[in-house]
Write a structure and sequence with these properties.
single chain, mercuric resistance, 7 helices, mercury ion binding, mainly alpha, DNA-binding, Mercuric resistance operon regulatory protein
Amino acid sequence: MQDKGNSLTIGGLAKATKVHVETIRYYQRRGLLPEPERPPGGIRRYGSSYIDRLTFVKTAQQLGFSLNEISDLLRLEDGTHCQDASVLGEHKLRDVREKIHRLEQIEKILSKMVDRCHAHQGKITCPLIASLHAGVRGAEDPRD
């Protein structure tokens, strides 16, 4: 990862990318970001290619890719493996859709539980608390 304009220290790189220094070091240990050569008696310098790489990693994380998946994507980034990258993207998309489905189910159950609380009268057990004690099956009242 050669950069002609290697002008940033690791602290400068962290500031430029809004990533902690320890995160950069962790990414280096994981092989997600190469460690530049240290000149004799000097400090390592980072250039724009490091900013680009960190942007790639952080964007991929925001899309839900794990660091292992990001490592796989980085190995495919030479432009000749678009089909392989597409397969990884398709798997991530399927995972996201499954999570959305599960969250929609959770939302529906919680909505019913909260509605029961709002309809709750008198000094009897709280319907939400009672449902949680009964488990998810108890929270899904077939009458609703």
